[in-house]
Amino acid sequence: MATQPLTRNQILVLDALTGAEGPLSAYTILDKLRDHGFRAPLQVYRALDKLRELGLVHRLESLNAFVACTQPHDHHTDHGVTAFAICEDCGQVDEMHDAGIEERLSVLAGVRHFKTEKTTIEIRGHCQNCSAAE
Amino acid sequence: MATQPLTRNQILVLDALTGAEGPLSAYTILDKLRDHGFRAPLQVYRALDKLRELGLVHRLESLNAFVACTQPHDHHTDHGVTAFAICEDCGQVDEMHDAGIEERLSVLAGVRHFKTEKTTIEIRGHCQNCSAAE
DNA sequence: TGCCACACGTTATAGCATTACGCAATTGAT
DNA sequence: ATCAATTGCGTAATGCTATAACGTGTGGCA
Ligand SMILES: [Zn+2]
Ligand SMILES: [Zn+2]
Ligand SMILES: [Zn+2]
Ligand SMILES: [Zn+2]
After folding, report:
1. CATH of segment(s) B78-134
2. Which ligand has the nearest atom to the CA of B68?
3. Which one of B119, B122, B125 has the shortest CB-CB distance to A115?
4. What is the pTM of this model?
5. Going residue by residue through chain A (134 aa), what tens digit of pLDDT does each one get?
6. Residues A6, A55: contact at Cβ < 8 Å?
């Protein structure tokens, strides 16, 4: 029941993501970790799978890339719905949680008797900084 | 200003999507159209790009696949935000438009001064039929 | 005629993800 | 202690998704 400690590979991958400015693809992570002994994509994907299970990492579907979770909430518990604002210019990702969205989506699914397993919300656009810079 | 007619390739791809039960990957479309002279992925991707510009086709990011638009609205005009409910069992996709979601997302972006270009919403789960069948 | 825009065809390549196999360490009975 | 089951790890091979780069042909138009 106690949170199992992360393995060496999982820590390496998580650190790579945490230290990055923006989302990283699995192959970019692989390249960053070659010096630490990584040689094959599967080492990255296996670590990512576990980290996602634990809620420490999210996958951005529209980017085929991954980010570390930035929310301080308990990672044991369910995240609920997460929305991402992704800047096309600087790559910055903002993780957002909003009860209103969650509620509205729940209604949409409800009227259709659709059982939701996982919801993806990704907003592509330009962050405040990059908009200001024109 | 008049809507330009679709090219032969675009019609073939659109028909393939319209006739399909669920979303199709670009390579699946390619295979379906080999008999009609298609030989390379680019033929499919180019048609898909155009069809998406015209609002006739949507890309499902979480699936790397494409569906024909099922909404009867004018395709010249902007779609607004589209949400998809995707059944993991039967592959059926339900295209949804909801002002509530749109409004809430707009607020989320607004407070961050984030300029939205494109929004992806995809709900993965089980449709009514497949839930009933257990 | 010369120019431009656009769709098309082909080949090659890049980028993302998984399958399959085998080994080692751990755990938890029997 | 021994066996079986689980889990993580390493490696190689493969498969799926998408784009780059090049050239052709056609129609509109100055
Ligand atoms: Zn998170
Ligand atoms: Zn930015
Ligand atoms: Zn549509
Ligand atoms: Zn279904």
Report:
1. 3.30.1490.190
2. 3
3. B125
4. 0.93
5. 345 789 999 999 999 999 999 999 999 999 999 999 999 999 999 999 999 999 999 999 999 999 999 987 665 556 789 999 999 999 999 999 999 999 999 999 999 999 999 999 999 999 999 998 65
6. no
